[in-house]
Amino acid sequence: MTVLFKAEDISVRFGGIRAVDSVSFDVNKGEVFSIIGPNGAGKTTIFNLISRIYNTTEGKLTFDGQDFTHTPPNKIAGLGIARTFQNIELFANASLLQNLLIGRHCHSTVGILSQMAFLPSARRAELQHREKVEDVIAFLGLQRYRDTLIANLPYGVRKVVELGRALCTEPKLLLLDEPSSGLNVEETEGMGFWIEDIKKDLGITVIMVEHDMALVSQVSDRVMALNYGKVLAMGTSHEVQTHPEVIRAYIGGDVEAEA
Amino acid sequence: MRYLFRTDYRQDMALWRHKGDLFWYGLLVVGLLVIPMAMGEFYVGELGGLFIFAIAGVSLMLLVGYTGLISLGHSAFLGIGAYVNSVLLAKGVPFIVTLPAAGLFTALCGAAIGWPTLRMSGLYLAIATLAFGSIVGTIFQKWTSVTGGFDGFPVPTPDIFGYPIEGATGIYYVSLLVLIFVIWLTANLLRTPVGRAMVAIRDSEVSAQSMGIHIARYKALAFAISAGMTGLAGALFAHYVRYLAPDAFDVLLSVQFVTIVFVGGLGSIHGAVFGAIFVRLLPQAIAIVRDDLPFGIGRMPGLEPSLFGLVLVLVILFQPGGINGLWLKTKHWFQAFPLKRQASFRRQKSYARSERLK
Fold first, then answer.
1. What is the nearest CA distance from B42 to chain A, expressed in angstroms?
2. Model ipTM?
3. How many CB atoms lie within 10 A of CB A136?
């Protein structure tokens, strides 16, 4: 198995708080890797470090053998890393189709002047983007919402749209920040199936932050548990969930006494 | 109600949704081409002025309505375009060179002001652009060797390949042509990655960045394109007023442009044109009823700007979609008759936006 993504001793400090404290992990190609932990453990912060919204204070990030610790945030999508957000960051006043087409931005190579004049090259590029977008729409079954404004879509659908927008960048690595938050049981199950399909059919590696343990156990190959920015445990879903440190972090108190 | 059946991706890219649209736009253009033959000099002149304001409106719409940046300094861009065009013309440069030169130079100025103000947004950006506007206004006044200062500057009559563009009719046709060009340019932008990147920046900067959009570059680009198109409007404005004086390009003019955008309806090219019609008609309407108003209201100074302000506030409060929104609602009412529902145009509220990454 080849390692696709590697984080070596990454840390970030906000003032005196070490939100992420020398965390190291690597993710193999074709794997679903989940990060769990109580609120404020630093899960989303790790995502923001990987998508370079925050600067790492220490440590090194490697993707596909390439060091991207200092790559500007707008180049990350071009590398092949796409992400979704915990609270949905879609473009609310644009249609679903436009949102997905924005996901194609990192693949647009046509010059600005040719775009302004809408030369044949721009038209051809648009048609190609549209075909890719239609593939994603078909894959996620979003046909009936194609021309709807995001602001008029229900929450559950928006969550899928955000997944779709990330897929439109044709990523090798997909970062999902709480894909099931705000979804009901049925929608969460659906999300689990999408993630499995993304892994099996599209061969995309997934790193996922998630609270829903059922979903984590269903899709993850490996799980990492964090607390206060430090790694508590790493291993299969079962190993991590029964790890005494993890139980202590979630439930608190003395594990021995409870057992 | 008309349902569109799409059989080709090109249909979504076309500038008109169906043949009916093409027919009506065509009819409008033909009508506008014929009008000067049927109407008096005054009306043709006023329509020409309307086109110039519509050009400025469309360009500001790209910045405010689509990129989500505010500018209270667009009268300065109009002024720069006007002076560049007129000064070059006075030096004997032909009009077909001075017009694009005015646009290009103003675009450069726009990029120059856009670049340092990128980190600002909202109120701070409004203040910065306001300051820029007043600095440029002062330059127009003080740089007498070029602009003539307060004495003004007579704008030479332009000609294209030896044919002089004289009177209201000549400016009317050139303005119409430039307006169509600017609308075409903006519509092209909006159906390609550049325009979508601008919309993305407007709606969520953090996810725009994650999609690979260089925020600073696209904001500066939006400023440059918007300023450049306003510069074109400025070049035509010089010929419309025929005599340039620095006080023509004051803050009130910028506020009028912002009024065009908000009253017309944010995020729509139609809206920019509707807004321009409103802004040009209001002073005329005031002039007509001025003598008939009771208590001498019509003679009070500041009636016009205060009415503009009142309308701006009322539109933002009660009709956020502007005239374009009103038009869409009216159209929907007739298309769905008698089935229009209260909630047809009501947005559901979303309270779950991320505040942490702002």
1. 35
2. 0.88
3. 21
